[in-house]
């Protein structure tokens, strides 16, 4: 598996022990050259039969790049991706599937060595890298289908955000442009589908899906120096602690203390044992032209969540003690902190459902879920506010002073960066096709129950979205426009995308991503990251 990234997020961290660094120019040029060479070749048909059954090989090669609107934002290298899919059918009731990604470049800023992505890591700094996206075996017997191996699940019916699509964690290393299915991380699982046969007069065709995920798999998150690392999780280089806020009333005001922060991100392995796995159940069917589904999930939280650990010490006090001298009071006001961002894991319960129906040219979709103990993000600014620092320091001032002057590194429990809350989420969308145009309007709403903490999601969060699609040039070009507006805090996301098929196997995609809003919202903290993008994909 890939190397342990215990210091992956430390600013300026180099390659792991002795790994050979790719020359920068070679890394930038090799990928586009590989893509163009493969794109120039005709599409081969890899489909052979032998004594062991049928074997098919396919996939795609893609080169992509982004163009920053604000050059002050973190860069993102051009990326090259080779997707390789293998399908084997050794028996008419058995199918084997493997999907592998070879990736170079992209958001990784200090990727200096090749490796296989470790499913236990939240922070990954590998370039080039190999990841086994999916790999499973299908067994079919009558009305029962079994699938064993690493796989992805696509539950829910809405566009962009599905409240019931909970089984797979997500990659958030490039959260706005990456396709939804590509963003999902495959999990090792056992899946069983049973197709029931009910009396014809009931007019329904039910399907029961049981899923067991034996061990938790974490979400993938960007590192502190990467383009899509959120500002809400970043720690400033220094923090001023107002002395007037932490001194007891009987004491005169203290001078302000300046704390310099050494901020880094460290991987923490989830509790990968069988009693920490997940169980999912989905019952779906078609009744009176309504396609419906009911979902239950009991398992690990699959959204990213974090703890922030801070240890404070006085370099001045340590220098005095090393020379055999007594520390002075001034040593208390020039401190240093080792601040570590570490993944946090929890368990949730979720119950929900979805439905879709057509009427004339209209298609309506409805989806909703109640979830218990979702881990929701707050901001580092909240944890470092004067009010919170006073709450943490003032009652423990005497103890902290003794420990710091003795030269010890003292933990400072400033609070949790993710907190558990019960959540109700629902959404509804309607689309219509008219003369080749397909507009879609969707509303999503989230209610956070019994919450008094300042979170990055409003207690009532309402998002309106508008999508429109249209084919042009005899369906060789597809235009897509998406605009989403949140009402309570006012963030906006917009995307314009055009896809043109140069040949049957070669497509060109370009577009623009717009993000606007307050830093106190999940998308709005990326408001400086507007960008244009370009992708070239060859499918074989």
Q: Uncertain spans, ≥5 residues at pLDDT below 50? A: 1-23, 25-43
Strand count: 25
Largest β-sheet summary: 18 strands, antiparallel, barrel
Mean pLDDT across every amino acid position:
89
In helices, the fraction of residues equals 10-25%
Query: Radius of gyration, rounded?
Result: 26 Å
Shape: elongated
> So what's the oligomer here?
single chain
In terms of DSSP E residues, the strand content is over 45%
Structural class: mainly beta
Instruction: Count every helix, treating DSSP H or I runs of 4 or more residues as helices.
Output: 7
Q: What's the N-to-C terminus distance?
A: 29 Å
Key terms for this structure?
540 residues, 18-stranded antiparallel beta barrel, 7 helices, elongated, disordered N terminus
Q: Could you characterize what this model shows?
A:
Helix content is 10%, strand content 46%. It has helices spanning 24-40, 180-183, 243-246, 315-322, 380-383, 386-393, 397-405, and strands at 46-50, 53-68, 79-91, 94-105, 115-116, 129-141, 144-151, 187-195, 207-213, 238-241, 257-265, 278-287, 290-300, 306-313, 334-343, 347-359, 362-377, 410-411, 418-432, 437-449, 460-472, 477-486, 492-501, 506-516, 531-539. The chain has an 18-stranded antiparallel barrel. It has a 5-stranded mixed sheet with strand order 10-11-15-14-18.
């Amino acid at each position: 598996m890939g190397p342990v990234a215990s210091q992956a997020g430390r600013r300026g961290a180099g390659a792991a022990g002795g790994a050979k660094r790719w020359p920068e120019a070679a890394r930038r040029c090799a990928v586009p050259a590989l893509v163009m060479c493969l794109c120039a070749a005709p599409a081969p048909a890899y489909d052979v039969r032998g004594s062991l059954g049928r074997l098919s090989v396919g996939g795609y090669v893609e080169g992509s790049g982004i163009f920053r609107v604000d050059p002050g934002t973190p860069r993102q290298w051009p990326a090259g991706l080779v997707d390789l899919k293998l399908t084997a059918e050794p028996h008419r009731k058995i199918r084997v599937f493997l999907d592998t990604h070879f990736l170079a470049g992209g958001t990784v800023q200090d990727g200096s060595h090749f490796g296989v992505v470790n499913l236990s890591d939240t922070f990954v700094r590998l370039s080039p890298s190999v990841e086994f996206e999916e790999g499973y075996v299908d067994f079919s017997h009558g009305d029962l289908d079994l699938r064993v191996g690493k796989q992805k699940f696509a539950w829910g019916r809405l566009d962009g955000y599905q409240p019931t699509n909970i089984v797979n964690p997500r990659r958030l290393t490039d959260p706005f442009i990456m396709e939804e299915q590509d963003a999902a991380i495959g999990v090792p699982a056992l899946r069983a589908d049973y197709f029931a046969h009910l009396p014809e007069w009931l007019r329904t065709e039910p399907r029961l899906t049981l899923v067991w995920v034996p061990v938790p798999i974490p979400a993938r998150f960007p590192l502190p120096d990467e383009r899509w690392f959120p500002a809400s999780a970043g720690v400033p280089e220094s923090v001023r602690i107002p002395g007037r806020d932490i001194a007891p009333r009987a004491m005169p005001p203290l001078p302000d203390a300046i704390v310099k922060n050494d901020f880094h991100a460290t991987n923490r392995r989830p509790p990968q044992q069988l009693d920490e796995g997940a169980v999912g159940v989905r019952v779906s069917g078609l009744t009176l032209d309504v396609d419906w589904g009911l979902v239950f999930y009991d398992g690990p939280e699959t959204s990213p969540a974090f703890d922030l650990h801070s240890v404070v010490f006085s370099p001045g006090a340590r220098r005095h003690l090393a020379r055999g001298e007594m520390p002075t009071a001034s040593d208390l006001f020039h401190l240093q902190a080792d601040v570590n961002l570490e993944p946090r894991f929890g368990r949730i319960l979720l119950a929900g459902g979805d439905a879709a129906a057509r009427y004339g040219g209209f298609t309506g979709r409805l989806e909703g879920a109640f979830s218990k103990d979702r881990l929701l993000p707050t901001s580092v600014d909240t944890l470092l506010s004067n009010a919170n620092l006073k709450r943490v320091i003032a009652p423990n001032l005497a103890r902290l002073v003794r420990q710091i002057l003795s030269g010890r590194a003292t933990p400072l429990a400033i609070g949790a960066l993710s907190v558990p809350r019960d959540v109700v989420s629902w959404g509804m969308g309607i689309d219509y096709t008219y003369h080749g145009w397909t507009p879609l309007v969707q509303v999503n709403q989230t209610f956070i129950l019994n919450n008094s903490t300042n979170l990055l999601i409003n207690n009532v969060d309402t998002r309106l979205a508008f999508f429109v699609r249209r084919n042009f040039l005899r369906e060789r070009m597809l235009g897509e426009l998406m605009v989403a507006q949140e009402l309570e805090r006012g963030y906006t996301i917009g995307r314009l995308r055009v896809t043109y098929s140069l040949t049957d196997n070669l497509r060109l995609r370009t577009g623009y991503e717009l993000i606007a809003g307050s830093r106190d919202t999940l998308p709005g903290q990326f408001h400086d990251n507007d960008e244009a993008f370009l992708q070239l994909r060859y499918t074989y």
